[in-house]
Design a protein that fits this description.
The protein has one domain. 72% of the residues lie in helices and 0% in strands. By secondary structure, the protein is an all-alpha fold. Helix 1 packs parallel to helix 5, helix 2 runs antiparallel to helix 4 and helix 4 runs antiparallel to helix 5.
């Protein structure tokens, strides 16, 4: 069980955006734009292709972390749920980046897709509608993340999975505290805006 959770943390801690930025010649992505290693900052700093690579990589590592935990811990549900949380924690506080990192949105998406897939798929339209309407990725991420544990409860997933989804969602919301403050102040960047060089 401990191996499953620790492994999930280490997988989640892989700094995909940081690696992608270096591969595309930018160096440390944390010195650009918002300073975040996630796909949104990569998009604003480097463009669409690096952002897509970052997004898919972050989703994949969240999914893989939970899938591997299932292999190691099944049929126990609590370690699998804890692994989903650990993957998000790893993304947000990566041991490879001095316990700094991203905001957990894409990694959380991947973890949720494996942990509570139908609840996650039900939350995806929420994200799409919010981003398409308001062009705030942060708002879409926060609201859709909070929809996942609710969906997990309504769809009858194991209690441990619903609690794991809730814990991961609260971490994601907490990591967006600065975005939430900017949303309230009306200064949050919209999707499509370029970061300053």
């Amino acid at each position: 069980m401990i191996a499953a959770i620790l492994g999930a943390y280490l997988i989640g801690a892989i700094p995909v955006g940081w690696l992608v930025a270096r591969a595309f010649g930018v160096g440390d992505i944390r010195r650009h734009g918002s300073g975040n290693i996630g796909a949104t900052n990569v998009l604003r700093t480097l463009g669409r292709t690096p952002a897509i690579v970052t997004l898919l990589g972050d989703v994949a590592k969240g999914y893989a972390a939970v899938a591997i935990a299932e292999r190691l811990a099944w049929p126990a549900t609590a370690p699998v749920a804890a692994a989903a949380v650990a993957a998000v924690v790893g993304n947000c506080w990566s041991v490879f980046l001095g316990f700094r990192g991203g905001k957990g949105g894409a990694t959380g998406l991947g973890a949720f897709l494996r942990l509570v897939p139908w609840a996650t798929l039900a939350a995806v339209p929420v994200f799409i509608v919010i981003v398409a309407t308001f062009r705030y990725v942060s708002l879409g991420t926060v609201v859709s993340a909070l929809c996942v544990p609710l969906g997990a409860v309504l769809l009858g997933y194991p209690v441990a999975y619903a609690l794991g989804a809730l814990a991961a969602a609260l971490i994601i919301v907490g990591r967006h505290h600065a975005n939430i403050a900017r949303l309230r102040a009306g200064t949050e960047s919209r999707l499509g805006q370029k970061s300053p060089a």
